[in-house]
Each structure stands twice: as C-alpha cells, then as structure tokens.
Design a protein that fits this description.
The protein is mainly α. Helices cover 72% and strands 0% of the residues.
Length: 146
C-alpha cells in the first residue's frame, strides 16, 4: 500500500470517540496512564529494573504527562466541536498506550495482588468490566474506512 492509498482512507475511530461514546473509556484510560506515569517511581517493576534504567524511565514518564494532558484537551475540544475529532488520529500512539496500560495494570492487580497496582486500579471487580470496553476501543480506534 502506498502513501496515496493510505491518505485516501479515512480514520473512523473519530466516529467511535464522538458518536459512540468511546471517549469515556479513552479518557478513563488516559487518566489512568497519567497516574501510572506520575507514580512510576513506586512501581514494583521499576524497583526490579536495574538501577541505571530507573532515572531514564522516570524522565521519559515526566515527558509524556504533558502529552497526555494535550490529548485529553483535544478530546474535550473535539466533543465540543471546536476542533475536528479526526485530528486525534495523529495521537493514536498515546491512545493505544493508555488503553494497553490500563488493561495490563488490571491484569497485574489481579495476578500479583501488589498493593501498588491495587491502589492504582481501585475496585478490581469494576475495573475488570473495563477490559471489554478497552478491547473494543483498541479495535475501533485502529479502524480505517475501506
């Protein structure tokens, strides 16, 4: 597939976000992702990582937080009709990472029972219900018209 063919296909994830209410799970996952990055220093995974990688991971996390805030702002502006919701297509990587982060942390809270993940997730039973919504969101935001 060449670039011209790709540009002719439109991103239909915007329909999911705005018209199908997908923004709710995506905003919840973006909030979770931000919280995860803000508390990465307390993560059991970071404590297990080599000491030389910890500062690098923390620095990278700090750089991503403003990007998450920007994407959340774009979603709100898109819902209000101030910008095209289609403009979020350029932020697919952040949306995917947020969804995948929430999904992975739900699983980790269940499997490990680590206090860090339980605090991060909150009510595990309620959070488990998000898994189906997260799967649907991942599929929908990656769709393009044929």
């Amino acid at each position: 597939m060449n670039i011209l063919e790709m540009s002719e296909k439109s991103w239909i994830g915007g329909i999911y976000l705005k018209e199908e209410g997908g923004y709710e799970i995506i905003l919840a996952c973006l909030n979770h992702y931000k919280k995860r990055l803000q508390t990465i220093g307390s993560s059991p995974e970071l404590k297990e990582a080599a000491a030389m990688f910890a500062p690098l991971l923390q620095s990278t996390a700090r750089k991503k937080i403003p990007i998450i805030d920007e994407v959340k702002g774009k979603i709100h502006q898109g819902l209000l009709g101030l910008i095209s919701i289609q403009s979020l297509e350029q932020d697919l990587e952040v949306l995917q990472k947020a969804l995948e982060c929430r999904k992975a942390d739900i699983l980790k809270s269940e499997e490990t029972g680590a206090e860090y993940f339980i605090k991060l997730i909150g009510n595990i039973q309620d959070a488990k219900k998000d898994n189906e919504l997260i799967e649907k969101a991942l599929i929908k935001i990656n769709q393009r018209s044929e």
